[in-house]
Amino acid sequence: MAARTTPHHRPIGSVTRGTTNPNRLRRMDRWIADAHGAALRASADPVAVDLGYGAAPWTAVELLGRLRTVCPAAEVVGVEIEPARVEAARPYEREGLTFRHGGFEVPLAAGRRPALIRAANVLRQYDEEQVAGVWARLCARLAPDGLLVEGTCDEIGRRHVWVALGPEGPRTVTFATRLGSLDTPSDLAERLPKALIHRNVPGEPVHAFLRDFDRAWAAAAPYASLSARQRWIRAVGSLQADWPLVDGGRRWRQGEVTVRWEALAPRG
User: Fold this and answer.
1) pLDDT digits (tens, 9 = 90+) for 165-177
2) Beta strand extents in the chain (DSSP E only)
3) What domain of life does the UniProt record list for this protein's source (predicted)?
4) Deepest of 61, 126, 184, 258, by most Cβ within 10 A of its Cβ?
């Protein structure tokens, strides 16, 4: 079967390395299901796009399973710019799961606008100056109540940082980790998304946040005797006085913390 491409259509974007592993995006998926589940259930067309899923379709398959725990009507469309990867994914298609050839133009069927676009480990190869344009293009494709989640994680999903955006633009930044793998919160700096990774320098808000997080982590060291989770919860809780956190203990227990975008947005 030929790749499903609109006639005279050239996908927008560049081919990624395609690295993928089962369960790599589990932290992001679980956060999406929790934060966006109600909006998906309320959507008349709860279609999600796994943009740039890579050389194997595992992340798209897993996204469908996790979204359907909160929205049984959810559908997932895996979109890849490399035609051979689309063909390799075809045997995994089933009810609610399809694969299409495309890029940042997000080629869904006429009239459909995604309730969710997930773009994980896609923008790392781009220049920082290109990020705002890509975000704007993807946000323009969203349904009115849609969500774009763009970020980066390590190869097995232990450390992950992502930005959540609505049609109006960026809203929040989430830091998520397997707590047993963490020495200090600033270890997550290497997984900052492209919009922030070069801003982890003195004078930039994201650098100040990670500095304060490390200090809070050090102050919470006595709680390590209870567990790494209790130390994380204590450290995150102490950040609330100076940083606009938007989640609470239920998400902190998962090794997460979410901050308003405007608090961490690059200067200049």
Assistant:
1) 999 999 999 999 9
2) 47-51, 75-80, 97-101, 116-120, 147-153, 159-166, 169-177, 256-260
3) Bacteria
4) 258
The domains of the chain, with CATH numbers, are 26-178+245-260 (3.40.50.150)
Q: Which residue has 């500095």 as its token pair?
A: 211
Give the pLDDT confidence of 196-206 residue by residue, as tens digits: 999 999 999 99
Residue 101 Cα to chain centre, angstroms: 21
Model-wide pTM > 0.85: yes
Rg (CA), the chain: 18
d(CA 266, CA 245): 18
Burial 109-129, CB ≥16 within 10 A → b, else e: eeebbbbbbbbbbbbeeeeee
Residue whose pair of structure tokens reads 């994201």 in the numeric block: 206
- Cα(208)–Cα(227) distance, rounded to whole angstroms? 26
Q: What are phi and psi of 184, to 5 degrees?
A: -140, 155
Per-residue CA distances from 265 to 35, 150, 184, 247, 261 (Å): 21, 15, 22, 18, 6
Measured CA distances, 2 to 84, 99, 100 (Å) = 10, 11, 10
Spatial separation of the C-alpha atoms in residues 13 and 150, rounded to whole Å: 15
